[in-house]
Amino acid sequence: MGEVNVELRRSGFADWQLEYAFDHWIGVVVVLPLALLSNLLTHLLVFRCGWTLHVSAGDYYYKKVRYRSKAAAKADIERQRELAAAIAPPAPVEPTRLPTRGGSLRRPW
User: Is the dihedral of CA 52, 57, 59, 61 positive or negative?
Assistant: First the structure.
């Protein structure tokens, strides 16, 4: 079994790459307030102040589960962790050999 990661976030909040905004003052003046306002409006209007659990297990399983309250999300963390740990990783796929037409690839048409 792989490691199971569970992260609790506000629904609708994006992970912004703010290094560019702080390197250029126009980003701080224009982009940063717009980004914060869009995050807040998305959180309030679209997701209605909800919370999201991001559950991942290795490279083979990822799931987002949304909750109406932070308390409900915190209460369900352990159950989601157990569900993700119970999923077995997929079996490795052995590559198949495709039939070739034989000969060189440099053959003229």
Answer: negative
